[in-house]
Write a structure and sequence with these properties.
Elements (H helix, E strand, L loop, with lengths): L2 E5 L2 E4 L4 E8 L6 E8 L6 E6 L6 E3 L7 E6 L4 E6 L8 E9 L15 E2 L3 E6 L1
Parallel strand pairs: 2-11
Antiparallel strand pairs: 1-3, 3-8, 4-5, 4-9, 5-6, 7-8, 9-10, 9-11
């Protein structure tokens, strides 16, 4: 079955950087559009960024534009999230998600669009 495993979370000071990874197995990774979501305590899970199967199309939430970069390595079945200039409001559990797609250039924006999820990794940014 499809398995997504996030890693790379941790505690960092404001202004610092982290790189998250999402290792996928049980699927043909290059056939899947991917996304990073986050959920802070007491808040809804929200889309942070998404990427098409080839990496040619991406989407970023306004709150992270210019600070976060999504990428993927289909040969390694792994997706990444490079985060710089972190802010306390970035504190959340970060989840990776995958959805089978049949079209290049497609990214998905809604939580309900994804049917495969990782367990999440905690990112805590101290002020």
């Amino acid at each position: 079955q499809v398995q997504l495993v996030e890693s790379g979370g941790g505690l960092v000071q404001a202004g610092g950087s982290l790189r998250l990874s999402c290792a996928a197995s049980g699927l043909t990774f290059s056939n899947y559009a991917m996304g990073w979501f986050r959920q802070a305590p007491g808040k809804e899970r929200e889309l942070v960024t998404a990427i098409s199967w080839s990496g040619g199309s991406t989407y970023y939430a306004d709150s992270v534009k210019g600070r976060f970069t999504i990428s993927r390595d289909n040969a390694k079945s792994t997706m990444y999230l490079q985060m710089v200039s972190l802010k306390p409001e970035d504190t959340a559990v970060y989840f990776c998600a995958a959805r089978r797609t049949y079209s290049e250039g497609v990214v998905y924006y809604q939580r309900g669009d994804y049917n495969n999820w990782g367990q999440g990794t905690q990112v805590t940014v101290s002020s």
